[in-house]
Amino acid sequence: MIDIPLILSFFLRPVHDFKSLVSSDDHKRLLDFVYIESTEALAEFSAFVKRPGVKKITDWWAHKEINAWIIPCLVKSQSLIPADVWDSTPSTTNTNEAQHHWTKTLTGTKLTLVEAIEKYVTSDNLPAFTGALTNTHNEVAHRMARNSQRQSKIAEKARQSQEQTAERKQLETELAEEVEARRQSSVRTKEISARLKLVKNSAKKLPATLVASSSGRVKTMTREFFEFL
Question: Which portions of the sequence form the region Disordered (predicted)?
C-alpha cells in the first residue's frame, strides 16, 4: 500500500464538533492523535476513544479503523513514507492552490476552444514553475498606502459612530421632552375638568329667585330661598 499525507484539516474538522462531548483534556488528546509515535500508543488511543462510549466519537474512529489506509496517511509513525519525505510534504493545499492560480494566470479562463489551445501551447513551452507567486504589490510604498487607507477607514468609522451616537442622544432627549409635555398637558386637563365639575355642582345648589316684574315691584324671595336658609 502506498501512503500519502492527507490534508489534516479535512480529518480534524469533525473533531472540533466533539468539544462539547468531552472534557478539554480529552478533546485536546483527540486533536493530537496524528502525533502518535508508536503502534502501542495507537492501541491505547483506540481504547481511550471507545471507553466513554460516545457514539459520535466511536463512529468517527471506527471509520478510520475500517478504512485501513486512512491512519497511515494521517499518522507519521504508521506510515511507510520515509520521515524526511513526510516532513517535507505539506499537509495543506497551499501549494496546489498557488499552482492553480499560476496556471489560470497563464492560460486564462472562459476561453474558446481555439484560444485555450493556443494559450496551452504557449504556456507548455515555458520553464517549469516552482513555488508560490511573489507579491508584486509588497513594496514599502504599497504597504504605506494600504496602512494609510486602513487608518482613513478607521477614522471614518469612528466619525460615523460619533455622529450616530450624538443623533441618538438628541432623539432620546426630544422624546423625553415630548413625553413630559404630554404628561403635564394631561395633568392640566384633569385639573380644568375637576374645576369645571365643581363649578357646575355649586351652581345646582344655589336657590332660585323671582325677578321683579316690569311694573317695578321689589324682588321677593321665594319659598325655596327660605327653605334653603
Answer: 148-171
Tally the C-alpha atoms within 13 A of residue 224's C-alpha that lie toward its C-beta.
6
Domain assignment present for 189 = yes
Distance in Å from the first CA to the final CA of the chain: 126
Which residue type occupies 205?
A: K
Question: Do 82 and 100 reside in the same domain of the chain?
Answer: no
Rounded Cα distance, 36 and 77, in Å: 7
Residue 114 has which C-alpha cell? Answer: 481555439
57 in Cβ contact with 30 (< 8 Å): yes
Window from 9-13, 145-149, 180-184, 190-194 with minimum mean pLDDT: 9-13
> How many distinct structural domains can be found in the chain?
3
Q: What is the DSSP string of 11-37?
A: HHHHHHTTTTTS-HHHHHHHHGGGG--
Side-chain half-sphere exposure of 136, counting CA atoms within 13 A = 1
Is 86:79 a contact under the CB 8 Å cutoff? yes
- Domain extent at residue 113: 94-124
- Cβ atoms of residues 78 and 46 within 8 Å: no
End-of-domain residue from the set 106, 124, 142: 124
